[in-house]
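Quick start: what a row looks like.
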Amino acid sequence: MTTIRTKPRLSIEYCPKCNWLMRSAWMAQELLTTFAEDLGEVALIPSEIAGRFTIMVEDEILFDRKREGRFPEIKELKQLVRDKVCPEKSLGHSDKNKS
């Protein structure tokens, strides 16, 4: 019997009261474009928690705006997702561990 490995799901949970839907959609588009072959889907999830903005792969939180006290730069976010879902993938000029 062979095991089929499904691609991980990335979720962006955002506070709709803070008008962060557009920011979430832009980040989702950037991540899906970069990781189209590595992610199963990118879901936008409205939160009932005020001020919430988290990025998760499956159930692991990669970024939490409340904990960090800021929004992530897209370059940083791509590196976090890459490190989780496909560490061997090159992000070109945005790789953090350049020689």
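That is the whole record. Helices lie at 21-34, 65-68, 74-85. The CA atoms of residues 29 and 42 lie 8 Å apart.
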